[in-house]
Design brief:
Strand content: under 5%
Helix content: over 70%
Distance between the termini: 39 Å
Structural class: mainly alpha
Radius of gyration: 16 Å
Length: 152
């Protein structure tokens, strides 16, 4: 698999891409239908966005190893991205955006930890992106335990 980005840049770019796409869809829907009931930001939504960005980052890098400092920096950047995206889309005021940032960073860190373990197991597969995508789907289903926990 050809590498497009490396390490930290791939996780930052993929998370930014996923959050920009979801924010654009939300803003377009709110513009087209002003009376639209926007779903609440929950732990499940944060997990879905985090796992989608991790699968996308894996497609960008081609299976590069992560370091602990790289994972910590990606988690801190994810917290900033989640808080900024919630504020920029008009879903939260400043205090709620900080709550979204803290929750988003924690969920992203948990997803990154679990995804790294699954990625190491799938290293010998013929096409390692397929088992990782199925793992991401199963991890999202496991995150449904927190379905009632609203962040904002």
């Amino acid at each position: 698999m050809r590498k497009i980005f490396t390490g930290f840049a791939s996780r930052a770019a993929s998370l930014a891409l996923v959050l920009l796409a979801s924010g654009a869809v939300l803003l377009a829907a709110k513009t087209a239908v002003p009376a639209l009931c926007v779903p609440r930001v929950t732990v499940c939504m944060l997990a879905a966005l985090s796992l989608a960005s991790l699968v996308l980052a894996r497609a960008f890098t081609g299976g590069e190893e992560r370091t602990l400092a790289d994972a910590a920096a990606a988690t801190a950047l994810a917290a900033l991205f989640f808080g900024g995206a919630a504020w920029a889309c008009g879903l939260a005021d400043a205090f709620s955006a900080v709550r979204a940032a803290v929750a988003g960073g924690a969920v992203y860190a948990a997803c990154l930890l679990a995804f790294t373990g699954a990625e190491r197991r799938a290293r010998g597969a013929a096409h390692p992106l397929a088992p990782l995508a199925s793992f991401a789907f199963l991890a999202f289903l496991a995150a449904q335990i927190f379905a009632g926990m609203a962040v904002i």
